[in-house]
Amino acid sequence: MNSTRIDWCDATWNPVTGCLHGCPYCYARGIARRFGGWDYSSGHVRGNASADKTFICLTSETFRSWRCKVYLSNGQKIAELENAYIVERGNKTIKAPYPFGFVPTFHRYRLREPEATKTPKTVFVGSMTDLFGDWVPDEWIQEVFAACAAAPQHRYLFLTKNPERYVMMGELGLLPEHKNFWYGTTVTDDEAPLFWSELHNTFLSIEPILAPFIGSVRNKADWVIIGAETGNRKGKVIPRREWIDNIVANCREAGIPVFMKESLRGLMGSEFVQEYPWERTE
User: Which domains, from first to last, does the chain contain?
Assistant: First the structure.
């Protein structure tokens, strides 16, 4: 697990990386492009070009032994790595965290990281992916859930733009109801689908907020996170103060804690708040 600047969690854990949603404001794609995509024959970095190539698993003098599998899931290319992809360059040993760029990849060797971390943490599971995307096999998700259950000292926050997958898994009895599992939905406007359940802890991540929320958040979440778009993307949306005030008013009426990301501190001034739901229940 890794330390993080994301202010609503203590750590991120990425047993799966890569995503196929194609969001224009995605920070994760830029990170994968910067640190991923290795030339398997020479060990040289080549940006994200690997996402467009046929992947060949190698064992040679250049690379330590590793195993991978690349196949299609719902017509989309995905990959599995049994152990870390490590490049030997002179006297240096370098891990390639995203060897297939932003192609969805299951890093199975990372599954024991939560159990190996003894200090309790609030963990964002899948900051570099959408673990519940349609292209992700059920088996991957089940293995991630099992790894979380094996390390109950942590609190796990899941987040998706595909909340229908939560519903489908819940109907099949495959969505754990553990107290330390929190299922979040990313929404950018109040037309987006979301997930709420009386059997599970749920939250909304309204980030980046791209439009006013006219409807109420009542009975739609146990926690609400709000954040503005960051970066320098052309067409970047700057939220209005009244957008945030409306959401907060609805949350206050419903008794839902609100967490504002640092990107809103300047806009909200003295009304800036960062509340956690477990502070009320644990």
Answer: 2-15+109-281 (3.20.20)
